[in-house]
Write a structure and sequence with these properties.
heterodimer, A: mainly alpha, Tetracycline Repressor, domain 2, 2 domains, B: mainly alpha, 2 helices, about 0% strand, EC 2.5.1.141 (chain A), UbiA_prenylTrfase_CS (chain A), Protohaem_IX_farnesylTrfase (chain A)
Chain lengths: ~300, ~55
């Protein structure tokens, strides 16, 4: 841990030296909105896997993935408390606002991480437990502690952590990993950069103030816009892989193509927008990207059920 | 350790803070019970399948 980071954490401990966090604060520590997307994509991975899983086992697997994701979020909030305190979007989080002490957040994150992995191993299988442990480690250590403050490619590489839940879901049901869940991984992996860079464009001043090397901060707005468009095209191609490789039917292909075309159109419009309209379009791109990913993962099981 | 005890003694535990703490403890108890019951049901399912699949 760097000296300045330690100093900030010590300062942060002053307003709440004793843990007075409420249950709601601990729930906020687990980033419930991010968790909901994790749960949903993991559920799709589980449903798409071959073979039937007992509903109680499925509930257990999804619960442990959710808890593990929440624990890694708590570890992220513990480590990032200093930059969260600087940024307007994150100032109200439990640690920078002083409602939960950094020590309490760290203890909570470590215990819940360990518990989720252990329970996954005992209740489901070792492969899904190992993947869950790797995901938590990748997000909390590789992304949060190493990538986020050092490189503009932070969310590109770090996106792997957010892309793993459908693979964990698949592994929980099938006790193996094949090409199909790796395609789901690739979809989320290539979706992450344009999604986050759209947000980073809006919050550019925040990231600059917090000294986080997001792409708009290090490479400038123009370069970021070009990369958003490039990733949108790559994502379009990747999103069609389930069809081109024969895992999904025409229903999925048509839906994915239509949704992807809208996303590309939005990204191009954002890249061509004048300065005064850019934030509005970036907000629309960010919001649509969430809808886009959610819809792709709705189309996959729907197509399977329809069998077209 | 002593520092921690001193900090705890310095904290003014208002009625609101105490209410929050009781609520947090209750939610923790519910979460723990849910976790235990999940373990119980998973054990029953695993046990059931193994009994059904055992060599006769």
């Amino acid at each position: 841990m760097s000296q300045s980071h330690k100093e900030t954490l010590l300062k942060l401990q002053e307003p709440a030296s004793v843990d007075v966090g409420s249950a709601a604060d601990y729930i906020a520590l687990m980033k419930p909105r991010v968790m909901s997307l994790v749960v949903f994509t993991a559920l799709v991975g589980l449903v798409m896997a071959p073979g039937a899983m007992h509903p109680v086992m499925a509930v257990a697997a999804i619960s442990m993935i959710a808890v593990g994701a929440g624990a890694s979020a708590a570890l992220n909030m513990w480590y990032d408390a200093d930059i969260d305190a600087v940024m307007s979007r994150t100032q109200g989080r439990p640690v920078p606002s002083g409602r939960v002490t950094p020590d309490a957040a760290l203890t909570f994150g470590l215990w819940v991480s360990g518990l989720s992995v252990l329970a996954m191993a005992v209740m489901i299988n070792y492969l899904s437990a190992a993947l869950l442990a790797f995901t938590i480690f990748f997000y909390a250590v590789i992304y949060t502690m190493f990538l986020k403050r050092r490189t503009a490619q932070n969310i590109v590489i770090g996106g792997a952590a957010g892309a793993l839940p459908p693979v964990i879901g698949w592994a929980a049901a099938a006790n193996s990993v094949s090409i199909e869940p790796l395609i789901y991984f690739a979809i989320i992996f290539f979706w992450t950069p344009p999604h986050f860079w759209a947000l980073a464009l809006i919050k550019n001043d925040d990231y600059q103030a917090a000294n986080v090397p997001m792409l708009p901060v290090t490479a400038g707005v123009k370069s970021t816009l070009t990369q958003i468009v490039v990733y949108a095209f790559v994502l379009f191609g990747v999103s069609l892989l389930p069809y081109t490789l024969g895992y999904s039917g025409l229903f999925y292909a048509a839906g994915a193509a239509a949704l992807g075309a809208i996303f590309i159109a939005l990204c191009v419009a954002l890249a061509m927008a004048r300065d005064k309209h850019r934030n509005r379009l970036a907000g629309m791109t960010f919001a649509y990207s969430i809808f886009y990913l959610f819809s792709l993962f709705v189309l996959l099981p729907t197509d399977k059920v329809m069998g077209l | 350790m002593n520092d921690e005890i001193e900090k705890q003694e310095d904290t003014v535990w208002t009625e609101e803070l105490l209410r929050q703490r009781r609520k947090r403890a209750a939610i923790m108890a519910v979460a723990l019970l849910a976790f235990i019951s999940l373990f119980f049901w998973v054990t029953l399912i695993k046990l059931g399948a193994n009994i059904a699949n055992r060599p006769l």
